[in-house]
Structures are given as structure tokens and as C-alpha cells.
């Protein structure tokens, strides 16, 4: 009986591997013909026109602050922050009795992957408030600046509250991480090197280690589930190639390096480790959006690392067909 089960498992594993190989070959058959079919006469993408690919069309936007629109931004902010408190923050210690204010820098928590999480949260806040301030009539530079300051102020306020937590404290490094994230959109606009890279995030529940462990949040908060999160640095070779060579390479194909942690961080097993991944990636901004609304949507989606063939290179070697989905 045991031998039969082993044989059945072997056949299943073999079919699973064959399916992965077939899917991988199919992907390659789609990618490289697309590169070969591209023509040197193809129109440039909106990102190829100039290095400041976040530049806006001035005719689409007002240049004078509208008090009513600014009031609308403030109202939406109150609603969004109230929803965040009710859905996330209240599930943590915030509903419990605190104690006197203290400072604490949690360098050991989640092998410091939480600092990437704070940075990503700052990016989301910065992008959202940039669009809000720009819509209200602030100039491009003012919108980026005020959005970054808003993200910084938000993280300061959250960490001040954390400073009174029973088990946490005010972390200056958490604040700095979130504040830097808030100014990341501004850096993308004004620092040329950022036309070659993107920062991305992926999340898929492959392990329940965090939710099954004891932690400060009563039911667990997905933003702290770092076992199932991966933070990526995506590089776009197409942007680096000479213009004559670009016709041989698909403009949307990028490569990413990812960082995550294993579940030992929350199962309390010895020697928890970081995990390093190499993956194919998609540069969504290469698909030639023309309107400002389309650019805004694509820019937001481009912060997400969509499933793609991936190799784990540390602490062990493994490959996945559509990481972060592990099967």
C-alpha cells in the first residue's frame, strides 16, 4: 500500500513538473517572437520621449488651488484614515490600555523586512496625495513636496501612538522608512536613474505561520504578514539599450530581484532566514498609455509585481512557475 501511494505521488509530481516546463516554454515562445516582430518604425512609448516620464500635460490640469477641491481632498483623507483605523489599526493594540511614552527600535522584528513595508506604505500615501493635491490645483513640485510631507506626518502620528503601546514603542527608523517612501514619487520625477528601475510589492498567502503565531495584533493584520510578502527591485533592460538595439527586445520585459523571509520568523524555529528571488517582470508603463488618467492607473498598477516565472536563489534553490503563487 505504501509503495502504491509513493508511485502515485511520483506520477503526480512528474505531471506537475512537466506542466511547469510546458508553461515556461510557452511563455518564452510568446516573449521572443514579440521582440522579433517589433519594427524600428514603431512609435516611441510615452516613456521614451524624455527621461522625466512622470511629467504631466499642463493643459489637463489647473495651476491655481481650488479651495473646494482642497476641501474635498481633506474630506476624503478623513474618511480613508478613519477606515484604515477601523479595518487595521484598531485590530492591533490600539484598543487596549497603553502606558507611558517610550522609544524602541525593533531591529530584530521580521528580519527588518518591516522597514520595506513602511517604505511601501509611504509610497502609497505619497502617490495618493500627489494626485489629490495636483487635482486641487497645486503645482507639480508643490504636489510632490506636500505629498511627501503628508506621508511623513502620517507615519509620525502612527508612531507617536505606538510610543504608548504596551509592547511597542516610537521607532525613528520606521518613521524615516515611511517618510522616504512618501518622497519616492518625487524622486522618480526628478532623478534620472529612476527611469531604469521600479520598486514593486507582491503578496500571496502561502503560509499561515503569521496568523497561527502569537503577536500584538488580536486577529493578525495582513500588513504584518511579512512571510507572504516580497519586495522587489525591477530593472528594465529596454531602457538601457542603445536605440538601434531596442527593436530586438520587448519593451515590457523586465527582471526583478525580490526579498522576503521564511516562516521560521513566526514559528520561532531556530535560524530564520531571508529569501532572495530572481524573476521575470512586466513593465506595464511600456504599453504606451497616452492620457493622464491612463498613465495614473498604469503607474499605480506598476507598483504590483504580478505572477511570473521565478527562481529562489537563497537560502535554497527552487523555481516557481507563477511566484508569488507557490504550487
Written account of the structure:
With 327 residues, the chain is an alpha+beta fold. It has one domain. 44% of the residues lie in helices and 14% in strands. It is built from 10 helices and 6 strands. It has a 6-stranded antiparallel beta sheet. Strand 5 and strand 6 (318-323) form a beta hairpin. The two termini are 26 Å apart. Residues 1-43 and 45-52 have low confidence and may be disordered.
Which labels suit this protein?
flat, 6 strands, 6-stranded antiparallel β-sheet
Ordered list of secondary-structure elements with their pairings:
Blueprint (H helix, E strand, L loop, with lengths): L1 H36 L29 H21 L25 H23 L4 H23 L9 H11 L1 H7 L6 E7 L5 H4 L16 E7 L1 H4 L12 E9 L2 H4 L6 E9 L9 H10 L6 E7 L3 E6 L4
Antiparallel strand pairs: 1-2, 2-3, 3-4, 4-5, 5-6
Helix pairs in contact: 3-4, 3-5, 4-5
Strand content bin: 5-15%
Largest sheet: 6 strands, antiparallel
The shape, in one word, is flat
Q: What is the CA-based Rg, rounded?
A: 23 Å
Number of helices: 10
The overall strand count is: 6
Distance between the termini: 26 Å
**Helicity range:** 40-55%
Provide the number of structural domains: 1
Main sheet strand line-up:
1-2-3-4-5-6
Mean pLDDT over the full residue set: 80
Give the ordered list of helices and strands: HHHHHHEHEHEHEHEE
Amino acid at each position: 500500500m505504501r509503495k502504491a501511494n509513493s508511485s502515485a505521488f511520483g506520477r503526480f509530481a512528474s505531471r506537475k513538473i512537466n506542466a511547469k516546463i510546458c508553461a515556461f516554454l510557452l511563455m518564452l515562445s510568446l516573449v521572443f517572437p514579440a521582440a522579433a516582430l517589433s519594427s524600428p518604425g514603431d512609435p516611441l512609448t510615452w516613456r521614451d520621449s524624455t527621461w522625466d516620464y512622470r511629467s504631466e500635460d499642463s493643459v489637463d490640469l489647473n495651476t491655481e488651488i481650488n479651495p473646494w477641491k482642497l476641501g474635498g481632498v481633506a474630506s476624503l483623507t478623513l474618511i480613508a484614515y478613519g477606515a484604515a483605523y477601523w479595518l487595521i489599526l484598531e485590530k492591533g493594540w490600539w484598543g487596549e490600555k497603553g502606558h507611558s511614552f517610550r522609544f524602541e527600535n525593533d531591529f530584530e522584528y521580521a528580519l527588518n523586512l518591516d522597514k520595506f513595508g513602511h517604505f511601501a506604505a509611504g509610497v502609497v500615501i505619497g502617490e495618493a496625495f500627489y494626485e489629490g493635491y495636483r487635482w486641487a490645483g497645486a503645482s507639480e513640485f508643490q504636489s510632490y513636496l506636500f505629498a511627501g510631507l503628508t506621508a511623513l506626518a502620517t507615519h509620525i502620528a502612527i508612531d507617536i501612538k505606538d510610543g504608548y503601546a504596551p509592547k511597542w514603542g516610537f521607532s525613528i527608523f520606521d518613521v524615516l522608512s515611511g517618510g522616504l517612501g512618501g518622497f519616492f514619487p518625487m524622486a522618480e520625477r526628478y532623478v534620472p536613474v529612476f527611469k531604469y528601475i521600479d520598486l514593486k510589492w507582491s503578496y500571496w498567502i502561502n503560509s499561515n505561520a503569521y496568523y497561527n503565531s502569537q503577536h500584538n495584533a488580536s486577529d493578525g493584520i495582513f500588513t504584518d504578514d511579512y512571510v507572504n510578502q516580497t519586495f522587489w527591485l525591477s530593472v528594465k533592460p529596454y531602457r538601457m539599450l542603445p536605440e538601434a538595439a531596442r527593436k530586438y527586445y520587448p519593451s515590457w520585459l523586465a527582471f526583478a530581484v525580490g526579498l522576503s523571509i521564511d516562516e521560521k520568523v513566526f514559528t520561532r524555529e531556530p535560524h530564520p532566514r531571508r529569501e532572495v528571488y530572481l524573476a521575470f517582470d512586466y513593465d506595464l508603463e511600456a504599453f504606451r498609455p497616452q492620457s493622464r488618467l491612463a498613465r495614473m492607473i498604469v503607474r499605480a498598477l506598476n507598483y504590483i509585481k504580478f505572477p511570473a516565472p521565478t527562481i529562489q536563489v537563497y537560502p535554497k534553490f527552487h523555481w516557481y512557475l507563477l511566484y508569488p503563487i507557490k504550487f
